[in-house]
């Protein structure tokens, strides 16, 4: 078998410090995630509004291009 020494007893102060830092890290992570989620939701709302405007412009441009192409084809057919 292996010749490992007996485990050393960890100080209660060190254990408390480790668990405290872990807890603080988890709370900070949850707070940070919440803050970033709200910021991202606001950005998504703005992008959705801009997307609607952009889609309308693209549809109008596509319609004009289609009408122009049809007019050109009719001119060629005559």
Can you give a write-up of this model?
By secondary structure, the protein is an all-alpha fold. It is built from one helix and no strands. It is rod-shaped, with a radius of gyration of 32 Å.
Number of strands: 0
Average pLDDT across residues? 94
Shape: rod-shaped
Number of helices: 1
Give the N-terminus to C-terminus distance in angstroms: 98 Å
SSE string, helices as H and strands as E = H
Strand content: under 5%
* Secondary structure: helix percent: over 70%
Poorly predicted parts: none
Largest sheet: none
Structural class by SSE content = mainly alpha
Global Rg: 32 Å
Topology of helices and strands:
Layout: H1 12-77
Keyphrases for this structure?
single chain, 78 residues, 85% helix, mainly alpha
Short note summarizing the structure:
85% of the residues lie in helices and 0% in strands.
């Amino acid at each position: 078998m292996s010749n490992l020494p007996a485990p050393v007893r960890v100080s209660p102060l060190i254990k408390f410090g480790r668990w405290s830092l872990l807890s603080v890290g988890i709370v900070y992570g949850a707070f940070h995630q919440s803050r970033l989620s709200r910021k991202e939701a606001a950005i998504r709302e703005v992008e959705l509004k801009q997307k609607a405007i952009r889609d309308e412009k693209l549809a109008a441009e596509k319609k004009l291009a289609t009408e122009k192409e049809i007019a050109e084809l009719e001119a060629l057919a005559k």
